[in-house]
């Protein structure tokens, strides 16, 4: 049993990302009755601590400093290591996000610990916990068990179900002072190219377009469908290379990895690099004019047809369902 597990709560635009709550659930399973301690880093994050507690954290430690307003690996590693040295945990859980993927190897190296990244499932609990992660672009899965040292894992968003929120839960919130200094990188400004709305990596519904969308205007009906379903828009590398959309929407081996409840692929052929980023989605619906397209091999439902005819029909059907519900 891990007597104490630290969980990094990830904050974006003043809001805790959903993967933070999933990480708490994972930490609870690893701790198996031990203590789960949330960690919040930023320039103004203390007000978010109670929300982490309502999802299962026993208590929260915050570090606030002007240099933590924007993420840098130097600043965050100094702050997190200070908490780590104070708490001396047996386990650490991060989200497998762009932040987690950047920060966790740096910390694991400093702590001289192993790192199990991109965990999609945890079997068992405590000392018997076995961590499942995809390998070979999702073609196979390996099971890993920690025999010695700190249990350090990152979990893939949308794979481990968070605990139910319980507003009656309470816990201590403590703040420690860390002199964050000697930063090699200073963030002056952040310019977001991605569209506002649902975070692609955490979306429950993703509507993705490929080269078959034919133009940036061709993405408009996909955006309408995504908005109607409360989801996000994604794209294949081919669509991004063709300048139909920004690379921030790219899904695949060299883009984002998503595991939504519903993935709608429109005009995507299904190159192996794209499948690596979405093949673990719960339900996959493929729309393509080519009945031999590779995407149909991984799809749960396939529609052979012109996406510019099929997508508007889907929009009308979902609108009708919403009106009648």
UniProtKB/TrEMBL annotation:
Residues 5-195 form the Electron transfer flavoprotein alpha/beta-subunit N-terminal domain. Binds 1 FAD per dimer. SMART domains: ETF. CDD domains: ETF_alpha (cd01715). PROSITE patterns: ETF_ALPHA. GO terms for biological process: fatty acid beta-oxidation using acyl-CoA dehydrogenase. Belongs to the ETF alpha-subunit/FixB family. Keywords: Electron transport, FAD, Flavoprotein, Transport. It comes from Ureibacillus chungkukjangi. This is Electron transfer flavoprotein alpha subunit apoprotein. One of its GO terms (molecular function) is flavin adenine dinucleotide binding. InterPro entries: DHS-like_NAD/FAD-binding_dom, ETF_a/b_N, ETF_a/FixB, ETF_alpha_N, ETF_asu_C, ETF_asu_C_CS, Rossmann-like_a/b/a_fold. Gene3D superfamilies: HUPs, TPP-binding domain.
